[in-house]
Write a structure and sequence with these properties.
The chain has one helix and 26 strands. By secondary structure, it is mostly beta strands.
């Protein structure tokens, strides 16, 4: 098995919403993104391959609520024809992917590589305690090539594969404990999932999860000079020299509970800010 590492800094170019949204992901900020290649056949784990494995899933545990939008992070998105597509699905389940509760076909040529892409299901999806987001590939001629990037998980492996005659297996089971990873897939939980699409707008500063208790992920789609956190009393603390990073983490555990603002000064002298609730 070969590993292709992507050492680039990925632009977090997504649509966010005017209401409060919480992005649920298992990825570890600032870790390299990569694609695992099969050693016995062409192609990728987590994408098209010579073994014709076609279904993969990301597990989300301890999460309840309603969402309608997800984010995916492709590393390859080559469409063999203008009608080539993948199918994104949401499954109920806490131990393995279960009943499919939402499904959406997505044209491969509509997706951008090395950045986040937003996909909206036709109606809101309600989950309770845990769920899976899967993607199913098609094998057509000429050959499509689609891969979702992977990253080191925050805690344990969350990536799954559907194997012929064996059903769904976690990567740790499939690889005999030799692989611990998560897919570039996230779910967007908003105050009102039913109105999320109507209120969407492109944003240059994304902070999640919000509210947060300890670690806050910050993603930029701009050239930044400085970044501060502004406390409820109005005190401004410069928290880091960005050094070109577009995706990084802030330790909010050192701050008391309250309402904060993440403020970014870009290279054109413009100010961008996000309201954050620390509990």
């Amino acid at each position: 098995m070969k590993t292709t590492f992507l050492l680039l800094l990925l632009i977090f170019s997504i649509s966010v919403f005017s209401q409060n949204c919480d992005t649920i992901t298992n990825l570890t900020p600032e870790s390299p993104y990569y694609m695992y290649e099969f050693s016995s056949a062409w192609g990728y784990m987590g994408g098209h391959n010579g073994n014709n494995l076609a279904e993969w899933a990301e597990q989300f545990s301890g999460v309840s609520g309603t969402f309608q939008d997800i984010l995916i992070l492709p590393g390859r998105a080559y469409a063999g024809s203008s009608t080539s597509y993948i199918t994104m699905r949401v499954h109920n389940g806490t131990t393995s992917p279960g009943t499919i509760v939402a499904s959406k076909e997505v044209l491969i040529n509509s997706l951008q590589t090395d950045q986040w892409n937003k996909i909206s299901f036709d109606s809101p999806v309600t989950v309770n305690g845990g769920f899976f987001i899967s993607f199913k590939l098609n094998y057509t001629q000429p050959q499509d090539t689609f891969v979702i990037l992977s990253n080191s998980p925050k805690v344990n492996n969350t990536a799954w594969i559907k194997y012929p005659y064996m059903g769904w297996l976690s990567y740790q089971t499939f690889m005999n404990g030799q692989l611990n990873t998560s897919f570039g897939i996230a779910a967007l939980f908003c105050d009102s999932a039913t109105t999320a699409n109507k209120n969407s707008q492109n944003d240059l500063l994304v902070c999640f999860p919000n509210p947060c208790s300890d670690k806050l992920n910050v993603a930029l789609n701009l050239q930044a000079e400085k970044i501060w956190i502004v406390s409820p009393s109005g005190q401004k603390h410069e928290i880091r020299d960005l050094s070109g990073n577009l995706f990084f983490e802030i330790n909010m555990a050192v701050y008391p509970a309250g309402v904060y603002y993440i403020v970014v000064l870009d290279k054109n002298g413009q100010i961008h800010q996000k309201k954050i609730l620390k509990f």
